[in-house]
Write a structure and sequence with these properties.
By secondary structure, this protein is mostly helical. Helix content is 78%, strand content 0%. It comes from Maribacter ulvicola.
C-alpha cells in the first residue's frame, strides 16, 4: 500500500471488521451492555452473527483492495455503496426516530468514508494493472 488513495479502504475495512465483531462476537453480552436490549432469541443471535460475517467479509475485501491494485476499483465502489447505503439508513432513522447519541458519530464517519471514496473514484478513474 504505497498510495494515499488506499488509506480509505484500509481504515474503513478495519473499522467495519471491528464493528462486526462488536455486533456478533458475543451478542448476549455486548448488546445489553452497549444498546440496552437482551439477545436471547436464537434467530436474533443468528442475525447478529450473520451481520458480523457480512461486515468481516466486506471489510476484508476493502483491506485486500488497499493492497491489491486489481481489486482497488471494485473494493472502492463496494465501499462507496456500503457507506452511502448505511448513511442513508441512519439519516432516515434520524428523521423518523430521532437523533441517536450512540450512532451519530458512526453516521459522521460513514459519510466521511462515503465522500472520500467518491473523491478517490473520481480522481483515480483508471483501473491500474500490476
Amino acid at each position: 500500500m504505497t498510495r494515499p488513495k488506499n488509506l480509505n479502504l484500509l481504515l474503513s475495512g478495519v473499522v467495519v471488521i471491528i464493528a462486526g465483531v462488536i455486533y456478533g462476537g458475543h451478542p448476549t453480552y455486548i448488546m445489553p451492555e452497549l444498546l440496552g436490549f437482551e439477545v436471547e432469541d436464537l434467530e436474533l443471535k443468528n442475525m447478529l452473527r450473520a451481520v458480523m460475517g457480512i461486515y468481516m467479509g466486506v471489510g476484508l475485501f476493502w483491506i485486500l483492495g488497499s493492497f491489491k491494485t486489481k481489486l482497488w476499483y471494485g473494493a472502492t465502489l463496494c465501499n462507496v455503496l456500503f457507506m452511502g447505503g448505511i448513511s442513508f439508513g441512519r439519516i432516515v432513522s434520524t428523521q423518523f426516530d430521532g437523533v441517536s447519541p450512540l450512532f451519530t458519530p458512526a453516521l459522521i464517519l460513514e459519510l466521511l468514508f462515503f465522500g472520500w471514496g467518491l473523491f478517490n473514484l473520481k480522481k483515480y478513474t483508471k483501473i491500474e494493472q500490476v
